[in-house]
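Open question from group meeting: does this chain pack into something compact, or does most of it stay loose? Before anyone orders reagents, we agreed to write out a predicted structure and look at it together. Recording both the input and the output here so the notebook holds the full record.
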Amino acid sequence: MRTMTPLPPPTADLSADEARRIALRAQGLLGAPDRRAGVRGVLRHLGAVQLDTISVLARSHELVPYARLGAVGRTTVEAAYWTQSHAFEYWSHAACVLPIEEWPHFAFRRRAYRSRPQWYHDLPDGAYDAVIKQLRAEGPLTATELGGAKNGGEWWDWSESKVAVERALMYGEVVCTERRGWKRVYDLAERAVPDHLLHDELDDTECLRRLVRLAGQALGVGTRADIADYHRLRGEQFDAVVADSGLVPVRVQGWDKPAWADPEALASVPRGRHRTTLLSPFDSLIWERARTERIFGFTHRLEAYVPKQKRIHGYFAMPLLAGGQLVGRVDPARDGRTLVARQVSLASAKAVAPMAQALREAAEWVGCDAVRIERVDRPELGAALSSALTRLG
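Structure tokens returned:
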């Protein structure tokens, strides 16, 4: 039987409200944004920005900096991620944009992929080497340029070159350096990753220790599951390194499990302006449902993959953050230059004004000059929401 190591006593007691505010500040949603650092600053602060194929207002990796900085140009977002080797794409919480400085931290995962005894796709002899040779000769290429991504069947029916380059990506011999028309652009790691990072080969324990520390900093405060889930670590991996991570144990009122915090997050009281904004369902503030329910008392589920007749809040319902709370949600769409709020949910009448503000700002950001409300879950608030939008112009 495995012997559990006793947990150290908590260094601080936090109220649920203090924990919520610490989490908001850690995620860059409480206090003045660092506009000088811009999108790259947001990426480095969060440590991971999740990618996803769904694009309604914009893709999720664009919505994340928008939520923190406001109407930053969408081309500016892409340039900040991908130019001058500032970032790379790899498997973290999911497929994520990661700061290039984190390349060494994922050595443990690259080694784990190399040691996998089985793969979902077979690969003929020579196919892997052929892809590496082509990239070396021709420079960065998409899977299509490498010979085609598919064999002609379903989406998982990858071509030999696609299987090979994705395997090389997992191994770390190849890097995704940008997305072009949502296609990955692959290049050799030896060209794309600065030498001092490429050759900084950390052992597994050090990789895990750093990732746990960074996740704790990005969350401010979290349970074992919260912090491990940030970069998809296993619980036992968290257990092995948390004592040496620099995070400190704390007790949070109303949380039924032990928690850890970034000591810097405890050093000052979180104060400042709350951002009013719509959040991507893949935003790291809310991407873990149990944590979102625990901190905000707000149950949210992405319904894009739920049959239409079973959806409650809509295809891509975006939670509304206002005053440091989640107070509603909207399922948006676009019709020409009109942002369409197909379904709006409001916690109370107090959520009407911030929802109008968030809808108007989002519309202007994506180039829409009008907002149309189709359905409000509380019909008695529909007229007030329309009036609030009219007053905002």
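Observations to bring back to the group:
The first strand starts at residue 13 and ends at 14.
The first helix runs from residue 16 to 26.
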